[in-house]
Design goal:
Distance between the termini: 41 Å
Mean pLDDT: 84
Helix content: over 70%
Radius of gyration: 21 Å
Length: 450
C-alpha cells in the first residue's frame, strides 16, 4: 500500500517541445478538475454531522455543549493530522494520496452513522479527522506543482486555479445538504442513512478523481512549472527551484516554517479567520432557528447556500490577486474590512429577507480571504515544503481556530449569551486585518526580488 502512495519516477520519454503547451494545458485542466471533485467529496463527509446537528441533538439527546465537544474533537484531530499528513504529502504521489484518504474516510463515516454513543462518536470523529487531513495538503501541492503565478502558456494562473479548487469545499458543503435530502427522498428521515448516502457518493467521486489526476509534471514528461513559466521561488531572498529534497523533516520545518516570520504571521491571520469561519458557519442551523426565527428546514438550506454562494467571491478575489501580480494580501484587506461591517448586520438584523442577503455576502467575505491566505503560505515556502506549510497552518486553524469557533463560541454563548460570543468574533476579525497589513508590506518587498 505504501509503495502505491510513493511519488512516481520521472517519465522516461519527454513530451516533444511543440506539444508541451497543449499537454500542459490538458493536464492542468485534469488536475484542477480532479482536485476540485475530490475535495467536494471530502467536504460531503466532513459536514454531514454539522448539517444534521438539529436532528442528531433531537434523536440522540445531545446538549449544545456536547455538540461543541464533538465538533471540536474533529478540529483537534484534524489540526494535528494536517501537520503530519501535510508533511507526508510532500513525499507522496499527491493524486493517489488524496484519493486514498477519501476512500478510508468514507468507510469511517459509515461506522459513524451507525452509533448513538457519545463516547464512540468522539472517537470516530477523531479517526475521521486524521484521514481528512490527507486532503488539503495533497491538493494544494498539486496546484503548486502544476500552476505558475502567471498564465504564460497555461490553462490558468495559480491564484485563479487555487481559488477554483478552494471553492470546491463550498460546493461540498452544499452537496452535503443535497446528499441529506437525497437520502431523505430515497430512504426516509433516517439519520444513519444520511451518513451512508454521503459515503457512497464520496467513494464514487474518489474513483473518478483517481483516474483524472496526476502526480508531478515530470511524471508526464513535462518540465517543472518554474522552467515552463520562467518563474522562480524566492524564500527570504533565496531562489529555491527543487520540488523534492533530501533534507530532514526537522530541518525543513525549522528553516522554512518556524524561522520564517512571514509564514508565522500568515498562520496567525488564518487562525483568526478560522475562528470567524467556524464561529459563524458551525452554528448557522441552530443560531437561525433559535435566535432569528427560521424553521429547521430553512436554516439547513441556508447553511448550504451560505457555502455555495461564496464561490463567486472566492474565485473573484483569486483572479484579482493574479491581476495584482501576486500581491494577494493587498487584494484581501478590502474584503476583511467589509467582513467586519457584514458581521455587525448579521448579528443585529432580524428581517428574514435581509438576513438571507447578509448571509450570502458573509460567505463571500469569509471564504475569499481564507482561500487567499492558504495560497499565500504555499508561496512563502519552497515546493518541497508546500504540504508542510499547509499542515502547519492547518494545525493552527483547527487546534485553535476551530476549537475556539465551535467549543469556545458554544460555551460562551450558553453561559453569557450570543452577544458575548459576537465580541470574540469581532476581536479575531481585527487581528486578521492587522496581520494582513503586515503581510502586504512584506509581500510587496518579496515580489520585487523575483
Amino acid at each position: 500500500m505504501f509503495n502505491f502512495l510513493k511519488p512516481l519516477p520521472d517519465a522516461a520519454q519527454q513530451v516533444p517541445p511543440n506539444k508541451v503547451e497543449s499537454s500542459y494545458k490538458k493536464w492542468q485542466f485534469r488536475v484542477l478538475l480532479s482536485t476540485s471533485m475530490i475535495y467536494i467529496g471530502y467536504y460531503i463527509i466532513r459536514l454531514i454531522f454539522t448539517a444534521q446537528q438539529n436532528e442528531i441533538r433531537a434523536a440522540y439527546g445531545f446538549s449544545l455543549t456536547q455538540m461543541g465537544f464533538i465538533l471540536s474533537m474533529f478540529g483537534i484531530g484534524y489540526g494535528v493530522s494536517k501537520l503530519i499528513m501535510g508533511t507526508l504529502a510532500d513525499h507522496s504521489n499527491a493524486n493517489r494520496y488524496i484519493a486514498f484518504g477519501l476512500l478510508a474516510s468514507s468507510v469511517i463515516n459509515v461506522v459513524l452513522g451507525s452509533t448513538k454513543s457519545f463516547t464512540l462518536i468522539l472517537l470516530l470523529m477523531l479517526m475521521n479527522s486524521i484521514l481528512q487531513g490527507m486532503g488539503a495538503a495533497a491538493a494544494q501541492r498539486s496546484i503548486s506543482l502544476w500552476f505558475g503565478r502567471n498564465k504564460k502558456g497555461s490553462f490558468l494562473a495559480r491564484g485563479t486555479a487555487y481559488s477554483i479548487w478552494s471553492s470546491a469545499h463550498n460546493f461540498g458543503a452544499f452537496a452535503a445538504v443535497a446528499s441529506i435530502n437525497l437520502s431523505v427522498f430515497m430512504f426516509g428521515s433516517s439519520v444513519a442513512f444520511s451518513f451512508y448516502t454521503a459515503s457512497a457518493i464520496s467513494v464514487i467521486i474518489a474513483i473518478i478523481s483517481l483516474w483524472l489526476g496526476s502526480d508531478r509534471p515530470a511524471t508526464q514528461g513535462l518540465p517543472t512549472i518554474e522552467k515552463y513559466s520562467g518563474e522562480a521561488v524566492v524564500v527570504d531572498g533565496e531562489v529555491v527551484q527543487s520540488e523534492l529534497t533530501d533534507d530532514s523533516v526537522f530541518k525543513v520545518f525549522t528553516k522554512y516554517i518556524l524561522k520564517n516570520k512571514l509564514v508565522m504571521v500568515i498562520i496567525l491571520v488564518s487562525l483568526s479567520l478560522y475562528v470567524v469561519r467556524f464561529g459563524i458557519m458551525s452554528w448557522i442551523p441552530g443560531y437561525l432557528t433559535e435566535h432569528k426565527g427560521f424553521s429547521q428546514s430553512e436554516a439547513k438550506w441556508l447553511f448550504g447556500i451560505f457555502e455555495l454562494a461564496s464561490v463567486p467571491g472566492v474565485i473573484l478575489l483569486g483572479y484579482i490577486s493574479d491581476l495584482l501580480k501576486g500581491r494577494r494580501a493587498m487584494a484581501m484587506i478590502g474584503s476583511l474590512i467589509l467582513l467586519a461591517v457584514d458581521l455587525t448586520a448579521y448579528f443585529y438584523v432580524t428581517n428574514h429577507a435581509a438576513l438571507i442577503v447578509i448571509l450570502l455576502l458573509l460567505g463571500n467575505l469569509i471564504y475569499a480571504p481564507i482561500t487567499i491566505i492558504g495560497l499565500m503560505v504555499n508561496e512563502a515556502v519552497p515546493k518541497f515544503a508546500v504540504g508542510m506549510s499547509t499542515g502547519a497552518m492547518g494545525f493552527a486553524q483547527y487546534i485553535f481556530g476551530e476549537v475556539i469557533g465551535t467549543l469556545g463560541v458554544a460555551s460562551i454563548a450558553q453561559t453569557y449569551g450570543w452577544a458575548a460570543a459576537d465580541i470574540v468574533i469581532y476581536l479575531f476579525t481585527a487581528i486578521a486585518v492587522g496581520g494582513a497589513i503586515y503581510i502586504m508590506i512584506k509581500q510587496n518587498s518579496m515580489l520585487k526580488e523575483v
